[in-house]
Amino acid sequence: MGKWKDEIQDHPEVPPALNASSFRCWDFAPGDVTPAHRTQSLDYGIVMKGSVVLELDNGERTTLNEGDTVVQRGTMHTWRNETSEWCKMYFVMIGANPVEIGDKKLVEEFRAAK
After folding, report:
1. 12 pLDDT higher than 60
2. Residues 98, 28: Cα–Cα separation, whole Å
3. Is the dihedral of CA 39, 43, 46, 51 positive or negative?
4. Residue 95: beta bridge partners?
5. What is the extent of the structural domain holding 44?
6. Does pTM surpass 0.70?
7. Which CDD domains does the record cross-reference, listed alphabetically (predicted)?
8. Residue 12 preceded by cis peptide, ω within 30
9. What is the rounded distance in angstroms from the CA atom of residue 98 to the CA atom of residue 114?
10. Is residue 102 part of a domain?
């Protein structure tokens, strides 16, 4: 299984500042699992090669294949490459205010992978 590298720690500008944007390319090795995380941004993810599973904190899982696109805002999620092939994704991230539900702000959060 591949080892996850915390790019957020090494590049604090990710996710981008409010009203800024960034474009990232991520390669997920076979078996890679990201930490569960939520970013304070509006994110567009496009699967360019391979397949990846998007898992939400409620356990809901969606398999995305080459050419699929996902849009996320304030979700706690994990990316899992459960295949024997590499997966390449492009992400456009747009800095935003935190999502608010009642009195609670859903700010950035990172948890260890399960």
Report:
1. no
2. 27
3. positive
4. 41
5. 21-111
6. yes
7. cupin_BLL6423-like
8. no
9. 25
10. yes
